[in-house]
Amino acid sequence: MDYFLELFFGGLTRGSIYALIALGYTMVYGIIQLINFAHGEIYMIGAFTALIAASVLTLLGFNGFSLLCLAGLIAVIYSAAYGYTMEKIAYKPLRQAPRLSPLISAIGMSIFLQNYVLLAQTSDFLSFPALIPEIAFLDRFAAFMMPSEVIIFVTTAVVMICLTVFIKFTRIGKAMRATSQDKTMAMLLGVNVDRVISVTFIIGSALAAVGGVLISSHIGQINFYIGFIAGIKAFTAAVLGGIGSIPGAVLGGLILGWTESFATGYVSSDYEDVFAFGLLVFILIFRPAGILGKSSSEKV
Amino acid sequence: MKSFFVSLVTIMAILCLSGTVLAGDTIKIGVAGAHSGDLASYGLPSLNAAQLVIDDVNAKGGILGKKVELIRVDDVCKPEVAANAAQKLVSDKVDAVVGHICSGATKAALGIYRDAKINVISPSATNVELTKSGEYPNFFRTIAPDDAQARLEVDFAMKKLKSKRFAVIHDKGDYGKGLAEFAKGFLDKAGAKVVLFEGITPGAVDYTAIVNKIKQAKADAVIFGGYHPEAAKIVMTMRKKRMTTAFISDDGVKDDTFIKVAGKYAEGVYATGPIDTSKSPQAIAAIEQHKKRFNADPGAFYLNAYAATQALLGAIAKAGSTDYAAVSKALRTQWVETPLGKISFDAKGDAKGIGFSMYVVKNGRYVLAN
Asked: Cα-Cα-Cα-Cα dihedral of A58, A59, A60, A66, to 10°?
């Protein structure tokens, strides 16, 4: 039973990691039907920025929770700026183009950002400080779930709730829903679609940065390539749960995490990816739009 | 249309001509390895070593009256890129190659060099099949093969650490999996219990699942075949979960980057590495040379690459030409004084006079374990 619980919590952590990044993917897709392949790179840039910020702040004497929050805040602002600029450069000019063009542009942006960081920083693996402080009362659960894992899971849950509330109950949330339903009509009704899309990217990038800071603190090392791997898995999670649906992203992430964890634990680590992607194919055969996705019929 | 054709032919002719300038005036040595990317810390010291040795030789007037030229290609330790790099060196008409660095990349490139009759000498590719299979008579190396490493790891774990239950993990690559399979073979023969034998995907987000499995299997030692990024992640996860399981790994982990990344969690990690000959006068001189020229301490496989380049150039000088068969024979019959000691090569291409030692991380540095 112990073993099952350990695998369960391990999968929960991994799933939360995927979910946190998948939320950004799903948000952008929900609004402009674009799979932002460069999202993983924003996650990576957030991690690098947090590392640099944390190094500077530690020299200035900060530590503990305030260090985490401040470094995280700087990373979020910086990544949000990247997301906003990226949208203006790579996606806005292609809004009227066929669906494939912004997709290729996104892939190009992803490669560009990877190599930009590679040249601007280093190709080495860099050690990332454990910014998440040890929380005393969680210590006895250390065998099951480390404090950093609990924080990641709690953050994912909180973010998901906040996003859902934001989309459902605020004015700009309503504008986002309108834009995703029918962009032209929303424009005709006076919604500032440009601003809505920018806000979407900013929020998505901010989430990616939060993920970058927390996950890198948990794993302990970063490298210019981490965005690619994390991005692929998170994209899979988003599709699995239904791309465009926010609870779907979290559900997809958790299911993917649990599948991988249990597959490794009870079968073999060799087949971890086989199980994960096999599950994806299986789900897509029966629910092509993902588990919580809505299959939308195109109005002619 | 006709003028277009004419200009096209003219341009092609000019491009072809520029390739045939200065053929045969120098002895071309190709140096291939990971010069960028996450495993660059393995390849750059070898590049520096080759450069220093070649500069020394040229300062003394070259070999056989010709200067030696270094041609570098980067394969980022990836097999597909290595094949391309090999093609490029072959088309550049190199006389011999020092490289590659990673076993997978070397394996991908060797066939291309063999068909082009080019001798290859690697300072770090340790996969056993590269020499033992007999498929690559053009391949030599100045490092002991992986079965020697695996043997050392198993013996050390069983005799010194008295471990009984082993979890053997690898990264599914040629190097890591090869090592792990040898380790498992030796463990089975010695009667030890192998409670786990599994591969992990390199570059994954986290490895909690496999660590859980190691814990569940109640292993008292982990033997890991693979490179330092994955090793760092696994060790950190293990130690954060308060596991005291011994972690024994290979020369892909005996690298200062591992200690830098894993930080305090690297303490007590065991890794095999080339025998430390750095107290010999030749080695001290070579290390000083690197410090003076590049303002830094040399890194992994530096002395191996130094020895490899010396052996290669020495063989060319002794053979009196860059002819493939003559150099091959010279490498197998001559003994060369190098920072690694006096070495030669056996019929299969393995070095005679070279071995591995076990190191442990103590106080943030790798020291000899006893």
From this structure: 0
C-alpha B271/C-alpha B360 separation (Å) is 6
Query: Is residue B22 very low, low, confident or very high in pLDDT (cuts 50, 70, 90)?
Result: very low
- Chain A neighbors of B212, CB-CB under 8 A: 3, 6-7, 10, 261, 264-265
Assess contact for B321 and B334: CB atoms under 8 A.
no
Bridge partners of residue B33, in order along the sequence? B74
CA atoms within 13 A on the CB side of A49: 25
Domains and their CATH numbers in chain B: 26-143+279-354 (3.40.50.2300), 147-250 (3.40.50.2300)
Interface TM-score (ipTM) > 0.90: no
Least confident of A124-128, B62-66, B106-110: A124-128
Burial class from Cβ neighbours inside 10 Å (0-12, 13-18, 19+) for residue B357 reads: middle
CA angle B37, B40, B41 (to 5 degrees): 140
pLDDT digits (tens, 9 = 90+) for B283-329: 888 888 888 888 888 888 888 898 899 888 888 888 888 888 888 88
Query: Do residue B212 and residue A7 have CB atoms under 8 angstroms apart?
Result: yes
User: Going from the N-terminus, what domains does chain A have, and what CATH number goes with each?
Assistant: 10-286 (1.10.3470)
Q: Mapping DSSP to helix (H, G, I), strand (E, B) and coil, where does residue B267 land?
A: coil
pLDDT band (50, 70, 90) for residue A85: very high
CA A4 to chain centre: 27
CA angle centred on A82, ends A187 and A123, rounded to 5°: 150
Structure tokens at A133: 């402080």
pLDDT of B224 higher than 90: yes
CB atoms under 10 Å from CB of A13, counted, come to 25
What span, in angstroms and rounded, lies between the C-alpha atoms of A13 and A146?
10
Nearest to A127 among B38, B201, B261 (CB): B261
- Supply the DSSP string of chain A, one letter for each residue: -HHHHHHHHHHHHHHHHHHHHHHHHHHHHHHH----TTHHHHHHHHHHHHHHHHHHHHHTT--THHHHHHHHHHHHHHHHHHHHHHIIIIIGGGTTS-THHHHHHHHHHHHHHHHHHHHHS-SS-EE----SPPPGGGGGGTTT--HHHHHHHHHHHHHHHHHHHHHHHSHHHHHHHHHHH-HHHHHHTT--HHHHHHHHHHHHHHHHHHHHHHHHHHH-EE-TTHHHHHHHHHHHHHHHH-TT-HHHHHHHHHHHHHHHHHIIIII-GGGHHHHHHHHHHHHHHH-TT-SS---PPPP-
Q: Which residues pair with B272 in a beta bridge?
A: B358
Q: What's the mean per-residue pLDDT of chain B?
A: 86
Q: Residue range B234-259: average pLDDT?
A: 88
Q: Among B38, B206, B209, select the one facing A125 at the smallest CB separation.
A: B38
User: What does DSSP say about strands B351-352 and B341-345: parallel, antiparallel, or unpaired?
Assistant: antiparallel
Query: B199, A270: Cβ pair inside 8 Å?
Result: yes
The per-residue pLDDT for range B169-195, each reduced to its tens digit, is 999 888 889 899 999 999 998 888 899
